[in-house]
From TrEMBL:
Record keywords: Aminotransferase, Pyridoxal phosphate, Transferase
Family: Belongs to the class-V pyridoxal-phosphate-dependent aminotransferase family.
PANTHER family: ALANINE--GLYOXYLATE AMINOTRANSFERASE, AMINOTRANSFERASE CLASS V
InterPro entries from the UniProt entry: Aminotrans_V_dom, PyrdxlP-dep_Trfase, PyrdxlP-dep_Trfase_major, PyrdxlP-dep_Trfase_small, SP_NH2Trfase/AEP_transaminase
Domain of life per record: Bacteria
N-terminal signal peptide: none
Keyword Isomerase part of the UniProt annotation: no
The UniProt record lists the keyword NADP: no
Protein name per UniProt: Aminotransferase class V-fold PLP-dependent enzyme
High-level lineage: Bacteria, Bacillati, Actinomycetota, Actinomycetes, Kitasatosporales
Cofactor: pyridoxal 5'-phosphate
GO molecular function list: transaminase activity
Pfam family, one: Aminotran_5
Length: 388
C-alpha cells in the first residue's frame, strides 16, 4: 500500500469535497429532535433553503439519497397507470425511467444520444400529439451527471406553456442545485428533486423536494402507495419545527452551515464561479486535443466535464493511473459511456488552485496512460484562470 500525504482529491461529480466548517458543524452533539432547540434549527433551515431552489413554497427534506427524493416526487403526485414523459439524456435519466416503470407508471421515453439535453422542440411535438392530456408529468434531469450536459429548463417550460398542456414538470437538480442557476418558481417547476452531496457540499444522506401549489393539489388525488415519503405529514410537522420521524440531525447541522456559506458568497457569485471553472476545464480538454462529450455550446455543464477518449484508449485505465499515482478520484463512464469517458467534477467546495491541481493530475495521468495529449492544455486553463 502506498502511503498518502496531503488531502485526497475527490474530483468526482458527487459526493464532493465537504468543507471543514461543515464537518465541524456536524460534529456537534445530537440533540432532542422534539425539543425547542431543534425547532429553532428547522425554523432557520427551511427559510434559508428556499432561495437556493428559487422558491417561496415548501421544501421537504428526507433522510435519503437523491433517489429517494425522486421516488417522493413520483409517489406524491401520480397514480398507477399514469403516463409520464422522460428524456433519455443519459444514465440518470434512464434510472428515473426504470423507477417510474417499477412504480407502475407508463413511460414515454424520448430517445437521446447522451450528448444533448432534453430538446424543447421535441417536447412541444410530444405535447401537441397529446390532445387528450394523457401525459401527467414531464420528467427532466437538469444537469445530467453522466454526460456533463445541462438541459434548458426555462425553454422546456416555455414549450409546455405554449402547448397549454397541464402536465406537471418534475426536475432532477441533484447535481446542479447550488452550482448552476436554477429557479423553481420562475420556471414553473412543480417538483424539484435534489440531494445533499453535490453542489450543497454535504455528505450523502439528505434528499429534497421543492413543491409547487399545483403539485400540492395533485398530491390530494394521487394514488400511488406512499407512507414514509408522504409530503403531507412532513409539511405539517415542519410548521411546528419538527418531523414525523427522527430526522438526520447532524446532517441538518451541516446543511445549516453550508447554506450560510452559499449565502455569504451569494448565489450569483457561486454560479459564476462554477461557470468560470467549467470554461477553464473545457479550455484544457480542447488544448490537450481531446473532445468534450457535450455537443451543444448552450448546454455545457458548469458542474462537471465529461472527456471523451480517442478510440483504443480506456478511460478507466486513465482513472486508475491517476488514483494510484496522484491520489485523485475522477468520475467513471456510466452505462453506455463505460470506458469511453471520464468525468471531472468541478463543483461545490472548489477554487482556482483546486482546478489547477486537478487538471495537472489529469494531464500527467493521460500522459502516463499513453493517451497522446498536447501539454499546452493545462496551460490554456491556467491562462484563463489568470486573466479572468
Ligand atoms: C447523483 C445523481 C443521482 C443519484 O442520486 P443518489 O443520491 O445517488 O441517489 C440522480 N440524478 C442525478 C442527476 C445525479 O447527479
Amino acid at each position: 500500500m502506498t502511503s498518502r500525504t496531503g488531502r485526497h482529491f475527490l474530483q468526482i461529480p458527487g459526493p464532493t469535497n465537504v468543507p471543514d466548517q461543515v464537518l465541524r458543524a456536524m460534529a456537534a452533539p445530537t440533540i432532542d429532535h422534539r425539543g425547542p432547540e431543534f425547532a429553532e434549527l428547522t425554523h432557520r433551515l427551511l427559510p434559508a433553503l428556499k432561495p437556493v431552489f428559487g422558491t417561496t413554497g415548501p421544501v421537504v427534506i428526507y433522510p435519503s439519497s437523491g433517489t429517494g427524493a425522486w421516488e417522493a416526487a413520483l409517489v406524491n403526485t401520480l397514480s398507477p397507470g399514469n403516463r409520464v414523459l422522460c428524456f433519455e439524456t443519459g444514465h440518470f435519466a434512464a434510472l428515473w425511467r426504470d423507477m417510474a416503470l417499477r412504480l407502475g407508471l407508463e413511460v414515454d421515453f424520448v430517445p437521446g444520444d447522451w450528448r444533448h439535453g432534453a430538446r424543447p422542440e421535441t417536447l412541444a411535438d410530444r405535447l401537441a400529439a397529446d390532445p387528450a392530456h394523457r401525459i401527467k408529468a414531464v420528467c427532466v434531469v437538469h444537469n445530467e451527471t453522466s454526460t456533463g450536459v445541462t438541459s434548458r429548463v426555462a425553454e422546456l417550460r416555455a414549450a409546455m406553456d405554449a402547448a397549454d398542456h397541464p402536465a406537471l414538470l418534475l426536475v432532477d437538480t441533484i447535481s446542479s442545485l447550488g452550482s448552476i442557476d436554477y429557479r423553481h418558481d420562475e420556471w414553473g417547476v412543480d417538483v424539484t428533486v435534489a440531494g445533499s452531496q453535490k453542489g450543497l457540499m454535504l455528505p450523502p444522506g439528505l434528499g429534497f423536494n421543492a413543491v409547487s401549489d399545483k403539485a400540492l393539489d395533485a398530491a390530494r388525488t394521487a394514488r400511488l402507495p406512499k407512507a414514509y415519503l408522504d409530503w403531507g405529514p412532513i409539511i405539517e410537522a415542519n410548521e411546528r419545527g419538527h418531523f414525523p420521524y427522527t430526522p438526520a440531525t447532524n446532517l441538518l447541522y451541516g446543511l445549516d452551515e453550508a447554506l450560510r456559506m452559499l449565502a455569504d458568497e451569494g448565489l450569483p457569485a457561486v454560479f459564476a464561479r462554477h461557470a468560470r471553472h467549467a470554461a477553464a476545464t473545457r479550455a484544457a480538454v480542447r488544448g490537450w486535443g481531446l473532445e468534450v462529450l457535450c455537443a451543444d455550446e448552450r448546454e455545457h455543464s458548469a458542474a462537471l466535464t465529461a472527456v471523451l477518449l480517442p478510440e483504443g484508449h480506456d478511460a478507466d485505465a486513465v482513472r486508475k493511473v491517476i488514483l494510484e499515482r496522484f491520489d485523485m478520484s475522477l468520475g467513471t463512464g456510466l452505462g453506455r459511456l463505460a470506458g469511453r469517458v471520464f468525468r471531472i467534477g468541478h463543483l461545490g467546495h472548489f477554487n482556482d488552485l483546486t482546478l489547477a491541481g486537478t487538471l495537472a493530475g489529469v494531464q500527467m495521468g493521460l500522459e502516463l496512460a499513453g493517451v497522446p495529449v498536447d501539454p499546452a492544455g493545462t496551460l490554456a486553463a491556467l491562462e484563463r484562470l489568470r486573466s479572468a
